[in-house]
Amino acid sequence: MASPGGANSGVAQRSSTWQDKLEEHCQNRRIPLPSYNVLSDRRGKRTAWSCTVNVGGQNIPARYWYDGQYVNTAKEDAAEAALKKLVGNGSTAQGPSNGLSQQGRVLGWGR
């Protein structure tokens, strides 16, 4: 009989993210792990957030700016852009299944 406090009880399984995929790519290629830099830009009464990721000596920006509650989505966006740049056209990089792709993106705030 399984105990109620088993390894998976009440804990949602974490799906793979772009950040995870980028880190795995770096480990497989034996290059330093990515570092993220979160950016903010005051726009009127609101603040927009974005991110850059430094990987393999390249500083790669996220494609969009986001509302503050979606800062992690900005990091996901930057990780996705970096991974697609590192592997070419991105055809081998399958996206995560966690619904973070453009959640919280502020329309009109693209780069």
UniProtKB/TrEMBL annotation:
Chain intervals for the UniProt region annotation (Disordered): 1-22, 89-111
Boundaries of every DRBM domain copy: 21-86
Biased composition (Polar residues): 10-19, 89-104
Pfam families to which the protein is assigned, alphabetical: dsrm
Record-linked PANTHER family: DRBM DOMAIN-CONTAINING PROTEIN (PTHR42030:SF1)
Protein name, UniProt field: DRBM domain-containing protein
Organism, scientific name: Lepraria neglecta
